[in-house]
Amino acid sequence: MTQRTVFVNGDYVDEREACISVFDRGFLFADGVYEVCSVLDGRLVDFEAHMRRLRRSASELDIVVPWDDPSLLEIHRELLRRNALEEGMVYLQLTRGSSGDRDFHYPEMATPTLVLFTQAKALVDAASGHRGIRVVTQPDWRWARRDIKTVQLLYPAMAKMAARNAGVDDAWMVEEGFVTEGASNNAWILTAEGRLVTRELSHDILPGITRAVVCELADALGLVVEERAFTVEEAQSAAECFVTSASSFVTPVIELDGVAIAEGHPGEVVRRLRERYIEESRRRAL
Ligand code: PDD
Question: Which one, 111, 142, 193, 271, has the greatest CB density within 10 A?
Fold first, then answer.
């Protein structure tokens, strides 16, 4: 397999040569934020919205973003070009950088570390997007500022391993009986009355970029979106369930904690939303 070219602090380098400090706070304290932009036809989906959220995440943690949006767009495009990526994702990570030692306090003068790399992946033809995924619930034991897209992803990794060990595809997080979100996606249901329900934005969940686009598309399709929390039982008896994220678009959930949703087949509404989302993303990609 050919080696990727990755971006590290201003340089495009072979992935085997890329290096950052062992004192980098991203490594020592998970003191950093990230974004994942999907790529269709060699172009970036929802780039501007992802960069807006990056700046918001960074500013909540007093991390400086020393790159403007045109420069960040240029870096993304250059990486796509150098890696000849047509479909997949670009991962961006920005950390507070290094003070040259380990100290809990934020350093006064640290240059943030910016790393980007590409990941090739079939997104449109992903089998999960068509046949759906099976999910188990896990207690939401993450911290209380899940609206900030930080790189502290150990708990989501543990939840995904619990799902794998249970023989299914993913996990939904539950707090006080209500679903917060998926381990790396936003969770949705379609009620028997035909209303789409997804949890309202707060510190409890990540404000998904795909979630926002799907809210718009739903509106255009004449579907009502109710932003509120729902229980596991409500999801299990829903007409349809699905998840949204940059790397999975709109993906049906066909089983939750062993209970088949809509007889275990992807529903019609999720199928239409996925199709519309892909069309619209292709049209708007930069
Ligand atoms: N995850 N909620 C969580 C906890 C997430 O990690 C993600 C994205 C989302 C969906 O956000 P968006 O629609 O902006 O991708 C919701 C990315 C894809 C990841 O960690 O790989």
Answer: 142
Residue carrying structure tokens 């380990």: 102
Our answer on whether the CB atom of 206 is closer than 6 Å to any ligand 1 atom is yes
The CATH label, of 3.40.50.150, 1.20.58.340, 3.40.50.1240, 3.20.10.10, for the domain at 127-284 is 3.20.10.10
pLDDT digits (tens, 9 = 90+) for 24-34: 999 999 999 99
Q: Is 186 in the pocket of ligand 1 (CB under 6 A)?
A: yes
Handedness of CA 58, 62, 66, 69 (dihedral sign): positive
For residue 184, report the distance from its CA to the centre of ligand 1, in Å: 5
110 CA to middle of ligand 1, Å?
28
Q: Is the dihedral of CA 229, 234, 240, 241 positive or negative?
A: positive
Residue identified by tokens 């929802």 is 46
What is the rounded CA–CA span in Å between residue 71 and residue 9?
12
Report the nearest-CA residue for atom 17 of ligand 1.
184
pTM above 0.90, yes or no: yes
